[in-house]
Amino acid sequence: MSDPISFPSPASSDDEKLARLKAKAEALADKPEFEVKFFLAKHAADVGVSPEQLEAAVNEVRKLRRKDAQAQTDREKVEARNARRRESKEKSRASLFRRLKGLPDVQRRTEIEQWCRQWSEDTEVVAGEFIEYAREGAPLRPAISEDMAADPVNGPDLVEMILRRIRQYCVLTPEVETAGAFWSLLTFVPAEVALNAPIFTVYGPKHDAGKTQFLEVLSWMSRIRDPGQGPDIMLSPSAGIYRTMDLGPTLFVEEGQKIYQRDNVQEIFDASWSFGKLIWRIVNGANTSFRPFCQKAVAMIGDHNVPAGATRSRHIFCEVLSKVETDAPRDEWRNRDDDNFKEIRAKSARWIADNVAAIDSARPEMPNGFSNRLGRNWRVMFAISDLVGGKWGRVVRDAALKLRREHDEDQPWHIRALKELRRYIREVHKDNAQKPVSTTAFIDWLLKDPVSDWYLYPPGRKITAVQMSLLMKRWYHVKSEPIGPKTTRNRGWKRSTDFAEYFLRVLNDPLKLSLTRSPRHG
Fold this sequence. Notes:
CATH architecture of the largest domain: 3-Layer(aba) Sandwich
Radius of gyration: 31 Å
CATH topology of the largest domain: Rossmann fold
Number of strands: 10
Shape: globular
Strand order of the largest sheet: 2-3-6-1-7
Structural class: alpha/beta
Distance between the termini: 50 Å
């Protein structure tokens, strides 16, 4: 708050009295109005001024505070508006550049001039940025020194070559091998086609489980910014990691659990999932934007460090367990490039380049439940597997389903309850949507498994029929009602169709009905 404050002059010009008046006015300005008026005379006597003078001083303090608060609010609104405009501009720029690729030169110039008038940009600067974009194949990225294979590449042979190299050094489950192989191909897809960068997360229960080794093997088969310098591998992420991300195209982090020990680093990783997001920082006194979007793989001890919710949904989790004596022997790993790795990268770059248009236009079939962020994590890898052909479309989807099921326990209780109810109707009621569901019978069915998570429903006890009824009412607006004969009356849900819209839109697992109802609200 501004100082000095122009208080009414007290009868005495004594500096000490003026200081006491200021302090008292500052203190009273925080009090409720009725309290100030009630004790006004007493407080005025304490500082040796009249009640009118003290009241005027309090009002002046409040006025200045309101003015400062309004100014701060106005500044925040302007900053937020400018940030939204910058983000909109970058998205519009990316859309313009994709559109310009298919236009003749004369029309390109007209489109650029129109866009620059709209966004108050310099035409020559934007035209130069488009030339760089068109030449490099990725918007505003440094050149990627990746030599492509001279001849077309057979997709199934390439996948098998990648898998052989993984198996040469790592002991993994088939679904983790498959996910790693197709994620390495994903790193060669241009950013404006990939659009999303799931965080490929390799985790294990302890040190020395093979996590870092798997990460390093992947790093030599993925797209590398400068093969002469090797992959971009960081031991521990710092708040300045956005600078490395801005260079692209692929980043590896060994101690990934440290990402979630600092909020500012976690926010950067969250932003890097979406193409077009910007990180703004002050560099040499100027507001400078960085593009954090890049494909990322991290290793960590356990997966419990990743917060639930939106942050966790940006990850693909792959568990790695330590080798045992009964495992087939693996070659000694040496973290360095060789001719076979170079061949894999060259063939991967060529295969993606030959198929990038098909990947961009693909609308791959999604397994049940793979909607929203989960589907976007896997969309490009599903498209690549379909284009590779043969068994690979099925194999990659099976791997995704297996890796996803291993993390279903991370979902909120109301989602898990809805999934279990859908399974109960399918398995017990044989998909008869007209048959009432008893909450007691449903709970007994859930608790048949002695290690079921429903024995640990918050606060750590087995769930009851009443708790299940309240859970469904709160989240899906479906009340339990008396069902069955009056002599053996129970409570439950009379119509499974009341959940039909939620089965369809939340689980993507619809009831077999000719008509689905909207969920009831009441």
